[in-house]
Amino acid sequence: MRDVSSSDSLRIALDICHPADFHFFRNALMIWREQNHDVLILSRDKEVVIPLLKEAGLAHLLLTRRRNGMLGLGVELIEHNYGAWQAMRRHRTQVAAAVAGAFVVHAARLLGIPALLFYDTEHARLSNAITYPFATRIFTPRAYRDDLGPKQERFDGYKELAYLHPARFTPDPAKLAADGLEPGEPFTFVRLVSWQSHHDVGDYGVRDVYKVVRRLEKHGRVLISSEDPLPPDLQDYAYKGLRTDVHHVLAHARLLFGESATMASESAQLGVPAIFLSTSSRGYTDELEQRYGMVFNFNGPRALQADALDCAESILSDPNAPQMFRERHARMMAEQIDVTAFVVDRVVRYARREA
Questions:
Q1: Which pLDDT belongs to residue 134?
Q2: Are 91 and 38 in contact (CB under 8 A)?
Q3: Cβ neighbours around 180 below 10 Å, total
Q4: Which one of 13, 201, 248, 348 has the fewest CB atoms closer than 10 angstroms to its CB?
Q5: Stated pTM of the model
């Protein structure tokens, strides 16, 4: 493929396979389009990916729908990569970027274009094993535990700062109205996951959501965001706002309690303490606890719901907690980069063959 000059419009492909991928690339996408670059969005129907793209008014090419089980995921992997190969060949893509990358990296290799991965999940061992060898460059947070060799480039920050850095995001209290909340009203945001990802096999978190609700609602309202449908008798607790507004609401919570490492980090970036309850762990959530005290991890043998709820109640009952976490958050943010600016720069440099 020919080199392009700095004045040329670039052809960039993004693979959006998970809701977090949408959020990660959203601001970079707007910047690239303002710079008149041609961005192809490839998508996968998983959880709320398609509704998010629709709510944002973004045209995309749907390649596959999520399949279950290892065999189903294997078939989908082949289908998605084949569809990506066809689409990027027609588009004449110059660089492909993704968060995990398994569904696009092989297609990029066949086309001879750079494949840039931005990832932070060490225990996705199978996915990483079939993806990393084909990547051109792998960008990881500073806290990533594994040494990936010369392909790896670390950055001072967290993936979630691509869309929640103060330079990119300002919480809007008006978004609370959809859930009947007033600014300043205490509430806890609960996040439940479906445990269907390939790296979730054998993991668990919340064992009894009814006990979680009973304990937490003693300290204010409880909102639940769940990947699986909630039982009818918990529907009153369901988050009712737009999917694209969830971070505006989360920013006004007193606490996040949940099974999602990504949302635990999102909460921390917004200055809201988080309880992360899961048998698996992450380097970035460990750092958010050990270095900044913004996340409280209950992982592995510590993945006990009762202990996590005790911790949650100690935070919610402490009148000094809001000020303490504001101070911790300010110290944390002083040490982070603008991740969107980093992503924009690296993708453009590789498209221009300047890297």
A1: 96
A2: yes
A3: 10
A4: 201
A5: 0.87
